Amino acid sequence: MSKWNLLALTLGLLLVAAPFTKHQFAYATDAEYEDDEDDDDAPAAPKDDDVDVVVVTSKNWDETVKKSKFALVEFYAPWCGHCKSLKPEYAKAATVLKSAVPDAVIAKVDATQEESLGQKFGVQGYPTLKWFVDGELASDYNGPRDADGIVGWVKKKTGPPAVTVDDAEKLKALEAEAEVVVVGYFKALEGEVYNTFKSYAAKTEDVQFAQTTSADVAKAAGLDAHDTVAVVKNFAGEDRTTAVLATDIDTDSLTAFVKAEKMPPTIEFSQKNSDKIFNSGINKQMILWTTADDLKADAEVMKVYREASKKFKGQLVFVTVNNEGDGADPVTNFFGLKGATSPVLLGFFMEKNKKFRMEGDFTADNVAKFAESVVEGTAQAVLKSEAVPEDPYEDGVYKIVGKTVESVVLDENKDVLLEVYAPWCGHCKKLEPIYKKLAKRFKKVESVIIAKMDGTENEHPEIEVKGFPTILFYPAGSDRTPIVFEGGDRSLKALTKFIKTNAKIPYELPKKGSETDEGTSEDKDKPASDKDEL
Known about the structure:
Elements: E1 54-55, H1 61-64, E2 70-76, H2 81-100, E3 104-110, H3 115-120, E4 128-133, E5 136-140, H4 147-158, E6 163-164, H5 168-177, E7 180-185, H6 192-203, E8 208-212, H7 215-220, E9 228-233, E10 241-244, H8 251-261, E11 267-268, H9 274-278, E12 284-290, H10 300-311, E13 317-322, H11 329-334, E14 344-349, E15 354-357, H12 364-376, E16 393-394, E17 397-400, H13 405-409, E18 415-421, H14 426-441, E19 448-454, E20 470-474, E21 483-484, H15 492-502, H16 521-525
Parallel strand pairs: 1-3, 2-3, 6-8, 7-8, 11-13, 12-13, 17-19, 18-19
Antiparallel strand pairs: 2-4, 4-5, 7-9, 9-10, 12-14, 14-15, 16-17, 18-20, 20-21
Helix pairs in contact: 2-4, 10-12
């Protein structure tokens, strides 16, 4: 899935997001909030709609991708819900790009049939998109999932880093196509300062850049001196504004300036905006969960929120969620807000999947203090936990909840294997019978605990999860740093070997064929899955 893969994983996601968004961990939108394997209802384009998407196999790879100047290749699975959702947008983008960027091939690979290609390019989940230049892998695609976004991304990759604008009308036309335009004004399109601007523009994919030597264009962008940069903003529902970089141009100043200015004061949580929210380069968010009336521009709650956004520009993304709307469920579920009284102000740190909640009244002072605590890392994280079960064992597997991580998983006297799963996850369901057999095999090994935890209902600051299932081994001893089980082979044999390799306390397994050794040779060699749900 995606950094959409992010607001999401714990919710049943994630945003993605993923192979799309570095897909990190987030509260997601409903499209991410589903089981890839079982989703037959995701929208799919009619076959004729994707005639401009080239079908690539190992047999024609050299004739298509290898010989192309540029190629965007989607590795997909036919059963994948996220792939089905992407299909019509990818098809539209392919049709537009066929004429707009004729040097670019828009292609797809059924990675369930072309396993060798998936393995060659490190495909770990679906859909995964890769960008190729002159037949060689150049980068992963972490851009938008809508047609316009894909087209814009490819144009940026294949065109000049910045568009040369020689009159104010051309700048106006550029603004009509992009809500944010970064304008550089130079005496000549050469020299050290210009090269710094050009280099930064080439590496920045989510913003349109323009360069000019025209005083009229510079004036329209709010600039009056050479070697200066402005950001021109035309956000929906907002007046046109410009911001000028107040310091000398260098990579650090450009990065900080553009990151701070490219986001609107507040942004609505939606599928359309997910890429902007989760791939903004700002890894912490404020989330205002409240009623539609509170979100009106003249409402006191919204005035307070917008004022705070000005103080923390570039440090926090200020997200709004209409809790009366259809799209609020991912946030409501992820943060446990069912029945909560509006307004609720939340904080979210994506990299650590940490959630925060403001206490007290929704005042300007409280909001500012809470935002500052999230930025500085002093806010107290809110962690979910199910009730501690009376009998924690289920078919020999120890059920962990958030409240028992310290006493069981982090017990220095035990070697603990922990599977963090999601009830909706198809890969977790495939693993379940193998995991039960693993628990049966280790039933009489007192030093080893085979455990599982529902990652959608339980959290702990020492447990980081970036996909389901995540399998972690905590060796006995004072250093409880977990060892991540990696690789697609989740067979009984592979898991047994993983424990044997990393356990600190010596043990002997029952002999094969005994009543506590349930594995057959077939079980041992059969992987539970070869791809994670990201």
